[in-house]
Write a structure and sequence with these properties.
The structure is a single chain. The chain has 348 residues and is mainly α. The protein contains 18 helices and no strands. Helix 2 packs across helix 18, helix 6 runs antiparallel to helix 10 and helix 9 runs antiparallel to helix 17. It is globular.
Length: 348
Amino acid sequence: MDPCRHGRATKTGATRAESGTGDLATGYGVASPADSHGRHQFLWTLILIALFVIWSNSFHSIAYLRRTIGAWDLLLARFVPVGAFAVLWCLLSEPRHNLRLLIENPVRIVVMGILIVPGYNLFLNWGQGQIPAGTASLLIATNPFFTYVLALAIRQERHRLRKTIGLLLSFTGVYLLVRSQGRAMGPGYELHALSVLAAPACWAVATVVGKPLVTRESPLRVTYLSLAVGSVAFLAVGPFSPGFRRSIDTFTPSDWVAIAHLALLCTVVGFGIWYAALRRLPASSVAAFVLLNPPLAIAFGPVWGTDEPSGSVIGYGAWILAGVIVSTWGIRDVVTRVVDAGFRRKSP
């Protein structure tokens, strides 16, 4: 029996009350379940905001590094350390289970690894050789639409009018944004924009291919295993690539900080935080935070000196994000889910 129910405070509760760590509003120095739940959600809301500050700045790290190195060398510099970590993780965290998962699903995991690592990142790295970081973040935000179209094609999802309207709205914004910037950026801009758009298409295919796995396995396990498979070749190629070695020999301390940001914070730490949040908060609430990516990327442009916000990026960016909201959640739903993620704490 709980002595608190009979008007007697526990020793732990009394100690917490005396030290000021308890919730005295309950009368026993013990926080109510509702209040603890609210604090838990608020804490993870702050963690997710910090995560998207990290992820939104990845576009600026890429833009900064592309000034001095090529798309391929940037891929090696980022995924040699990521590959080493992912392989080590797979060897230390239930290795037999990881091996069995790979043996039973070789095609899915290999395809995911190729699409997530060289596919997504080569397209993005090369495209950002000319596409500004803020614009790239907006193009990457179209990922839900590629996933929707692919899911329709293989009948994983039914057609929905709201999603189709959102898709058309968002891609109209993408077309107008690329067209308006293309006049100022010169020839080849549209090709680079298509390259950036190919990155979320790769991720969407990987998402659809991996869906049967993540429904029965830990998404973090599937992701790290795919990263290991997709990066393992770079562990052998990277150290012996003359171009790559020349590139890293000229790295400045700022270049190494940018690489560490991409490899460690964005990939290794970022994926860990993302899936930890998914275990603790509703998936729909966590997913709503992806809308922070483009605005944060645009806001941080002047800090890096890689991108200055323009009227076309802000205006068409709002258009594109409106399409994402309409297609994925609906305006009322996204506000409710963000609030439920922690901005409004439940009362006891």
